[in-house]
Amino acid sequence: MKRTLAALVAVALPLLAMGEEAAPQLQEDPRAAKFRDVERGFFIGFEAGYLGLFDTPTEDPVKFPYAGESGGGRAGGILVGAQVGLDLGTRLSLALVAQGGNQRASVSYGAFSLLSAGLDARYAIWGKKDRNDWERFYLYLHGRGGYARTYPKGLFGTSDLIVQAGPGVEYFTKLRHFSIGLATDLVYATKAKASGVAVYPTVRYTF
Questions:
Q1: How far is residue 187 from each of residues 95, 97, 172, 198, measured CA to CA in Å?
Q2: What are the Cα distances from residue 38, in Å, to 15, 19, 132?
Q3: Which of 7, 98, 156, 171 has the fewest CB atoms within 10 Å, i.e. is most exposed?
Q4: Strand partners, 160
Q5: Which residue intervals of the chain are DSSP H helices?
Q6: Can you tell me the distance from the alpha carbon of 76 to that of 102, in angstroms, rounded to the nearest whole number?
Q7: Distance of alpha carbon 203 from its chain centroid, rounded?
Q8: Which CATH code of 2.40.160.20, 1.10.10.60, 3.40.50.970, 2.60.40.10 fits the domain covering 42-206?
Q9: Tens of pLDDT along the chain (207 residues)?
Q10: Which helix (H) or strand (E) holds 70?
């Protein structure tokens, strides 16, 4: 009897092993998420809005006598920019940024272009989750600084260091890669000693 049981076990074990190998694999749960709802990493961004300066001094009154030594007063115009950056987690990001705009002051002062390039650092101080537990809406603070050139040379200036900082909001859409936002900055041209404010919507694509 014992020999018979041993023989049955010896035959059954290989058959069971073959049955386990031949068993079909479980199918993947179709409800399981295959992609992240919010992408993070390398991104490009674009912005366009308004830049206003509270005062516009004249760097070279001899070259621009009609502009006057006191300048042209307030100036304003369109502002456009582009970013290339990287998310360092969900809250911090760093980016290279380039901006350009055209400012119009008084009739006697005229208009001038302001072009700059530099670095932007941003940190989200608050985030709100959606019903699927993904943080999509953020309130952030950011600061940026850049080397600037102005044209025509000698009117508002020739070269300058532009710094700006302020709060902003950003919403990561359900298109995964896209986010939209709005920023409001205080702006200061350190050499011209001119301050202003910038307001601009933003759009970003994360790869």
A1: 18, 15, 26, 7
A2: 48, 43, 11
A3: 7
A4: 148
A5: 2-22
A6: 8
A7: 8
A8: 2.40.160.20
A9: 555 555 555 555 565 555 555 445 555 555 555 567 789 999 999 999 999 999 999 999 999 998 977 788 999 999 999 999 999 999 999 999 999 999 999 999 999 999 999 999 999 999 999 888 889 999 999 999 999 999 999 999 999 999 999 999 999 998 889 999 999 999 999 999 999 999 999 999 999
A10: none
Question: Which two three-digit tokens encode residue 165?
Answer: 């900082």
Count of alpha carbons within 13 angstroms of residue 158, beta-carbon side:
5
Q: Rounded CA gap, 13 and 10, in Å? A: 6
Amino acid at 20: E
Q: Could you identify the residue written with the tokens 């992408």?
A: 39
